[in-house]
Each structure stands twice: as structure tokens, then as C-alpha cells.
Amino acid sequence: MGADVRTYDAAKVVLIIGGVPISGFADGTFSTAERTSDTYAMVSGADGIVSRAKTNDFTGSLTITLAQTSPSNSYLSGLAIVDENTGAGVVPILCKDNSGNSLYFSASGWIRKPATAEFGKEISDREWVFDLAKLEIFSAGNIVTEPR
């Protein structure tokens, strides 16, 4: 009997912002989700007694990197403009690895600022940073690929 083989497929990572699937990711790392604060803050007293305080800060951020040529840049630019002008740019954000079970979700997220643009001889990246009011995280492994 062979060893378990687990497979990750970047093409199966789904990112949905405001109900719209995002595509045209840059090469390399294209999505990073993280909480703003540690879950607990630890304090060690002079007598060696250790205490911890729950921060209750579930805010976070999601950074996505798209290729300059991605059609999703237009959608995100429009969303940023709507938010700047009306405040109506708070949307749900979901990132799910469909080749595994990892899931990152916030019911309320918004674009921190428009992506920085650079132009040159080659295709560049556009980095979009979202602030998330409450980032729910489920980091999991990937499924076992059965031998044929």
C-alpha cells in the first residue's frame, strides 16, 4: 500500500469579493489573509505567574496580487471609487481552497486604498489590500489524491 499523496492546486483557489469571482492572479503568492492582532496577549509576572488576556480583536486583512492585465482590476477599481464617493463599498469577501478545506471569510470588507500602479517593459502586478471587520479563519490541509 502506497503513502498518502496530498495535492494542492492553485487554480482551485476561489476568491469572491462582493459576489464577483476574481481572476487573473499574478505568478507566485497571490492571496494572503491574516488577523491584525494575536488572539491572546501573555504577561509573565515577577513571581513567574503567567496570565493571558483575550484580545477579542478579530479584524484582519486580505492582500491579493493580480496581474496588470487582469480584468478584475477594473471591478476592484470601480468598487474603490464607489466606496470613496458613497461609502457603499463594504462587501463580503471569501477565499476558499477547493483542493482542500481552507476557508477565509469576512462578511464586511473594503478596499484600504487603490492599487499602486507601475508600468515598464514587462507585465507588472497590482496589489489590493482589504480591511476586514471580522476575519474568520479555517486553515486546513488538502485532500488525499487516490492512486489510479
Element order, helices and strands?
A: EEEEEEHEEEE
Distance between the termini: 13 Å
Low-confidence stretches: none
Please tally the helical runs, counting DSSP H or I stretches of 4 or more residues.
1
On the 0-100 scale, what is the average pLDDT? 94
Overall domain count: 1
**So what's the CATH class?**
Mainly Beta
CATH architecture: Roll
Please sum up the structure shown.
With 148 residues, this protein is mostly beta strands. It has one helix at residues 72-86; strands at residues 13-17, 20-21, 31-35, 40-44, 50-54, 60-67, 91-97, 103-113, 125-132, 136-138.
Key features of this structure:
148 residues, two-stranded antiparallel ribbon, globular, single chain, mainly beta, 1 helix, Pnp Oxidase, Chain A, 8-stranded antiparallel beta sheet
List the topology elements.
Layout (H helix, E strand, L loop, with lengths): L12 E5 L2 E2 L9 E5 L4 E5 L5 E5 L5 E8 L4 H15 L4 E7 L5 E11 L11 E8 L3 E3 L10
Antiparallel strand pairs: 1-2, 1-7, 3-6, 4-5, 6-9, 7-8, 8-9, 8-10
